[in-house]
Fold ROK family glucokinase.
Amino acid sequence: MAKYFLGIDIGGTKIASGLVSAEGKLKKSIILPTLAERGKNVSLNQLFISIDMLLKTGGVSKKDIKGIGVCAPGPLNPQKRIIYNPPNLQGWVKVPLGDLVEERLKIKTKVENDANAAGVAEMLWGSAKGYKNIFYVTVSTGIGTGIIIDGKLYHGKNGMAGEGGHVTISYNDETVLCACGSKGCIEALASGPNTVKRFLKNISRGPEGESLTVNMTKNGAADITMKTIADAAKRGDSLAIKTIQEEGRFLGIWLGNMINILDPEIIVIGGGVSLIGNLLFKEIKDTVKKHTINIFASKTPIVAAKLKKNVGVFGAAAIAMI
Amino acid sequence: MAKYFLGIDIGGTKIASGLVSAEGKLKKSIILPTLAERGKNVSLNQLFISIDMLLKTGGVSKKDIKGIGVCAPGPLNPQKRIIYNPPNLQGWVKVPLGDLVEERLKIKTKVENDANAAGVAEMLWGSAKGYKNIFYVTVSTGIGTGIIIDGKLYHGKNGMAGEGGHVTISYNDETVLCACGSKGCIEALASGPNTVKRFLKNISRGPEGESLTVNMTKNGAADITMKTIADAAKRGDSLAIKTIQEEGRFLGIWLGNMINILDPEIIVIGGGVSLIGNLLFKEIKDTVKKHTINIFASKTPIVAAKLKKNVGVFGAAAIAMI
């Protein structure tokens, strides 16, 4: 009897894959380089090598695999299982990834974007267990979102729904240009790297700049990451605290918008930035209450994701399961 | 055999009701004053009088009615059929309207907010006929939205989903305060009255103020409405044109957001402001394309609503039908 779901998370630099049980236990995982710079055929081959290696080292045969899930960078269409042309996967243009994997492995394969998949993993095995209407957010290098309605991912007409990171809350702010071409997208305001940038700008601005952080890294300001800022905040650094609170306010205003539109049962926030913990979450929750007309919004739980390490693999396995 | 759906649209000043066939023909409609200022019992009684009068003057009996739909101002919960405490219905606090109507008439009754209901009417009988995934917008005194997924209204956890009018696209703009308490909500930027306000501000600002509009109304600036501005634009008035284009840009940026989140099959825009026509719609469409990362968004139809007069009654009847 098939016992595992095989999850594969393709990134621009590495391919992480793993065998996950229906109960959400990770039996075995491996990581290979994507070798994206060598083009589509090489990186696609890395994916197949991953699967072979995983089965071999995991000591399981194909008949033990109940389904395969693949997460890839967007734009992609989960319904058609096509990857369009992700900026970090060179030469991938309209790749029918689902068909390719399914033909080769003869195992049912699903394709999904990472944030959507991570949301499903949180529903099955994480902080949203027991919920069926979920707004999932990941805040790390970028900001991604996934919408789950009645236990199913909501994809929209072209499979492109749930791109909440590119909702602008400050459409005419010339100082907040987003990679997507718009201004004031929440990703441009509150992603990890953009928060670090804002922090560095404030450091260089004089009195506020007396921050612990510069003494916490080897090369001073150049080495500062969200982790540094979070650590400095825990040690009482006022600029670090202010920066995180500001990020919380941005996220709170944006989530107030999302509640007005979607009225979800629960909001789960994952990604590296969510590890900051209470300082960030308190600000988010306080701000949400002030930025929604939903009279029940104060009761909508806003919680940290449970799955942290290997969330990509769990997400990919999760979409194979639903 | 039951032949009609009875739709009732309760507003702060009037109650409009009508008999609508499954094909969307309005057999008979009447309007009574709500008498909201006299409190809940009086206005509720007006609603029942409406129904009685409608049946009598329409020459139909209760057994001819297949279902009743009631639209009311929010906040309300369509699933529980409860009206919470609309600012313009005095004394209505947690009124179980669905139960009250159903008990009295012994006919299945649904309760819905106006924008949601109008969206359903557009799906059944209007511009969205044949579509099942619809983002409906009404731009008039306020901005309301309705989300239809797979042919059904999307309500969210507390029945409060689809409040797209209170999505901010300019969270820190002190000059754009919304009635909801936030800043920069699309309603505060682009509703009819708020667009008129912006226009009047520009008139008073000097050279741009040389607008035809002041000569088009009886009492000058004080009488200017969206209709005046639209008429002036048609006659080539540059400030009027600019004002409408600006409104289109606001709506386009906001709809770009909505497409990023919801990826609908079609966007239908109703309400008085939508009557402006091409000048507004061209600007909306051009702007949407620049403000979405959805690579298919340029193919998403953005169209004017078909149902104009009696849309409230059609909406209410429509929700009784689905």
Observations:
- Chain B is about 35% helix and 20% strand.
- The CA atoms of residues 82 and 173 of chain B lie 35 Å apart.
